[in-house]
Known about the structure:
Elements: H1 3-12, E1 44-45, E2 50-53, H2 57-68, E3 73-76, E4 93-94, H3 102-112, E5 125-126, H4 129-143, E6 146-148, E7 152-159, E8 162-170, E9 173-178, E10 181-184, H5 190-195, E11 199-200, E12 216-219, H6 240-253, E13 264-269, E14 272-276, H7 288-310, E15 320-324, E16 335-336, H8 344-349, E17 356-360, E18 366-367, H9 371-376, E19 379-380, E20 389-392, E21 404-406, H10 415-421, H11 424-444, H12 453-462
Parallel strand pairs: 1-9, 2-3, 2-10, 3-6, 10-21
Antiparallel strand pairs: 4-5, 7-8, 8-9, 11-16, 12-14, 12-15, 13-14, 17-20, 18-19
Helix pairs in contact: 2-4, 2-11, 11-12
Amino acid sequence: MDRRKFLAACAATGLTAPNLxxxxxxxxxxxxxxxxxxxxxxxxxxxxxVIVCGGGPAxxxxxxxxxxxxxxxxxxxxxxxxxxxxxAGLLTYIFDFxxxxxxxxxxxxxxxxxxxxxGTNRDRFAYDPEAMKVLLEDLMGEAGARFRLQSRVVAxxxxxxxLSTVVTESRSGREAWRAKVFIDASGDGDLGTLAxxxxxxxxxxxxxxxxxxxxxxxxxxxxxxxxxxxSFYGGDGRVHLAAVQKNIEAFRRAGIEPxxxxxxxFQIHGNLLEFMVNHEYGVRPFDADAVTAATVRARGEVxxxxxxxxxxxxxxxxxxxxxxxxxxxxxxxxxxxxxxIVTQDDxxxxxxxxxxxxxxxFPVDIHAASKEENSVRxxxxxxxKFRPYDIPLRALIAQDVDRLLLAGRCISGDFIAHASxxxxxxxxxxxxxxxxxxxxxxxxxxPPHEVAWADVLATMKRIGLRD
Length: 467
């Protein structure tokens, strides 16, 4: 269907098509011929107060919190499990997690399931990704939040400026879903973009941007023999950079150089280790061909690097790649414009806000934008004096589209601030607040920006998300 017919079809149903400007819609670079897709009627469901798009750390937290706050909640996840980068992405390591509410509850649950590693440090620790999958499913069920896996949001429609309907594609076909409030927890701002929100990416839209990493799990014959190579082995927070240097030296002995200048091992359980060794530079996460090529290159590199270490023998003998991630790890995605923009100035000033949803303690973490830069400085901290700062609820409320909240990497911020708040401990805190604000907005049938922060905070306390 061409643009004119598409707009006419939207008007006939009372819906408004999103603004299809260059900033809001990506077009393939190979300029294909156009095909007019026939118009068709699809099933429309109207059984949710809040719909969450994306089931990663932010999305799962948002759905659990919205349901606990009394909202009928649905979540759609494109992959085959909840947890996003925690599970499908095999991140296996959590930063900035010593926060009230779900972070502490998750840590306690992981402890009860013997699935959290590295002692008693609740701010940063390794975990078992399979246990995390089951834990998130259990918490969603306990809260009464409905979720569907392998379902991707592919379209969004508005009544004027208000987001009213999303369309999904899944094994059940193409379906439409209405709700009173929506939350974009896609990581890359997919829903906000489909709805017509303005956004930014990287330092500029054509990069430079932070690189991607395909994480992997490896099995070794005796992790204790490699303890000097394993970051935070036994809970020792002092040995990360020393372990990284040991890994660099091992790769040099093997005659191979990883694309990531800080090759890292974490212990997951016994002789099962996280293998974080590669970077894919200059890849835009909304370019499907580029992400596919990056994934294939990265997987090949993981296996080559593992084989090179294996040939060293000794403690590396028998090293085996047990799994590579289903989803390549994306650091940089779209940042949807909100009613407040978190900036570098917030970090240097240690900004405080009355409507603070999270206190960020993780510093700026900018991975090199190119292989050349990686060889000189693999990671930069922004060359600024960092102070812990607050993220306000306003940064989680879309500016251009009503009834749309944001949580996780896609909130409103600049490149420098994003390099700090993007870690998953902060994503969970954002998801909590977005979920509760969405539930209250749905109950009152009002846009989230009209919900009083005092009511959000009181509800979070009532349902155990704040002390």
